[in-house]
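Supplementary notes for students who missed Thursday's class. We covered one full example, reproduced here. Read the sequence, then the structure, then the short commentary at the end.
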Amino acid sequence: MTAHVEDILEILGNQAPAPSADLSKTIKLSRIDVKAVNGMIAQSQSMGLTEKQRGLTLHLIQKYRRQLGGVGVDIEPIVGNPQWRTSLREIQPVPSTIWIEDDEIRFKFGYDAKLIDRLHKFSQNDTFMAELKYQGKGTKTWHLELNAEGLNLAYALVKDNKFTPSQDLEIIFQELEQLHQERNHSYVTWDNGWQIHNAVDSQREAAVQCLQATDNIDHQLIDLVHLGFDVDESVKLKLLERWQPREASIMVHRNFFIENKKFDTGSIIDFLDQLDTWPVIINYGWYSNFVKDVLPQLVQAFGRENIAMEGELRQDSKIWIAKQLHDSVYDESLQVPILVTYTGLMGQHSNKYSATPYKFKKVLHVEPPL
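Structure (token representation):
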């Protein structure tokens, strides 16, 4: 009589007699495998195993083939042509649904590690102005504050992750869609690629040229923001696949003000290294300890050969460091995408580089340490 896989699983868990007459022989499992084997044995008493559990069972049988052989079990016919005592247990996927209940937005979905990670980043992001939390016990439902920010995130979930909205939310989203279409400023969304909205012909042509110039999504976004496009929530969701919340916020703004306590120099260096768009000008202004405190970190990260100090500006340098921003910086022949300025949140050069929108693509205003 052909043995069923579940029979071998019970022998593996020492819960059924083995063919060997030597009763002193038992199979010793690792601690982590004991839990898995016992759980699947218990389940197989009342229902079938899932496809994933069946695969794990066959894996464990092969893993302990030597010990099973020692108690008289030949696993070759079992593994070669597995016969199951119970029928396959098919798990219906959890539908992705979103609705309004008790004056808040609630949603649930089947296991999706990437989406869960992105949602946790939103919940930890101090620039995201809607409370988001997960109610794990019982309902396994996400709870989202019902405000403008929460509705934008819910709208992005429906558009990008194919959530099915309740009827009342569907009406709200139709109104949001209408607002998106009617607003008079240009913006971009992400739907398996960039979507450009409300752009005049010249702005659209410039955007298309930027998108054709590079396949790097981060660099494309910098160019789009530089051209004056606003960013939809769908883009912020896409960014959280790669960036931490603070860095994602930097990505969607041309000018970003950084409190030193919240984003230290090491974090800025890591951000620039990941962004990989050069050159970067660092204007340290009255930050008197910059050369002592920050320059060694820059040298360690990028190498002295890639750093040009005051008066050594070279287009092939990754980083140019200057106490003052000389007029040569504004020479339009020099393509300088990023400016990091430690001249204070209201630095002396702020008006000048704000008035030259096509000079710096992104400006990070860093509060100097006291």
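Commentary. The first strand starts at residue 97 and ends at 101. The chain is about 40% helix and 15% strand. If anything here is unclear, bring it to office hours.
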